[in-house]
Write a structure and sequence with these properties.
mainly alpha; elongated
Amino acid sequence: MSIEKNIVMGIAFTIVCICAVYDVKKKEIPLQGIVLGSIAGIGIDLWQITVGNLSFVETGLAVLPGCFLLLISFLTREKVGYGDGLLLVIIGLFTGFYRCMIILCISLILISISSLALLCMRKVTRNSRLPFVPFMALGMGVGFFV
């Protein structure tokens, strides 16, 4: 990966980690993090499009996993929060479709394992709410190396 791409991934990872701390402490994702991430992600993608490294189609595909999570949020009456979906849209802007899908899959696997362990230990119930953004941050950390 180029130095430029590493810097972009570092910015995205920093934004997600800050949002993860808020998600754990306050059970919400800060609007400032969503706005900052959106502006930075759109700006970087527009710059990449103008220099010819990216197309509008690739950018559109990159936000699809986040849009899918937003749809799930709507259909489940926010069992999965809208902030999780918006943050995944931002991750897609920074990382692209393929890496965003890897991050989402890793995150879902990690939260599934954690949920199962917590259920077995009777620390949570079936209706408990777990913060998802920390698992996205872990997924991004693992996704850097894939």
